[in-house]
Design a protein that fits this description.
6 helices, mainly alpha
Length: 146
C-alpha cells in the first residue's frame, strides 16, 4: 500500500531527525513534524502526526514496563516465595496443633480453629504444639490463646 510505504518512510525520516536533534540537545516537536508531514500527506497531516506520536508513546511505555519488570521481577518473585514459605510453615504448624488436639480431645471447636489460623508467629505456634501435646484439657489450651 502506497500510504503505508509513505508512513514507514516518514517514520524512518522522523526517527533520524529526532536522533539528529537529540545529538544537538534539541527536541523534535509537533510543529516541525507537522511541516514535514504536510509536504507528503497534505490532508491527512493531523492524523499522521497523532499516529506517529501515539506509537512513540506506546513504544516508550512498553520499554518502561520491560525495564521495570527486568529490574523488579526477581525481587517480587523472591518476596512472593518468602511469603509463600512463611504461610506454608504457619499452616503446617496450625494443622499439627489441630491434629494433636483432635487426637487427644476428639473435636476441636471452629472458634479455636479460627483463632489458631489467625496466629502467624512461628515460635508461638511451635510452643502451642508442645502445649497441645501436654495440656490437661481443651479449656486449658484455649486459655493459652488469650
Amino acid at each position: 500500500n502506497d500510504a503505508e510505504l509513505k508512513l514507514d518512510t516518514l517514520t524512518q525520516i522522523l526517527e533520524f531527525a529526532a536522533k539528529v536533534f537529540a545529538a544537538r540537545n534539541k527536541r523534535l516537536d509537533k510543529e516541525m513534524v507537522r511541516k514535514a508531514v504536510n509536504v507528503v500527506f497534505k490532508e491527512r497531516t493531523e492524523d499522521m502526526i497523532a499516529t506517529i506520536f501515539d506509537e512513540k508513546v506506546l513504544e516508550g511505555e512498553a520499554r518502561g514496563i520491560a525495564k521495570a519488570e527486568a529490574e523488579y521481577k526477581p525481587k517480587w518473585v523472591a518476596e512472593g516465595a518468602a511469603i509463600g514459605e512463611a504461610r506454608g510453615k504457619t499452616e503446617g504448624w496450625t494443622k499439627s496443633i489441630q491434629s494433636v488436639l483432635q487426637a487427644r480431645f476428639a473435636t476441636v471447636p471452629k472458634t479455636l480453629q479460627k483463632r489458631l489460623a489467625s496466629i502467624s508467629d512461628l515460635e508461638q505456634l511451635e510452643e502451642l504444639t508442645k502445649q497441645a501435646a501436654t495440656c490437661a484439657s481443651l479449656k486449658e489450651f484455649e486459655k493459652l490463646l488469650r
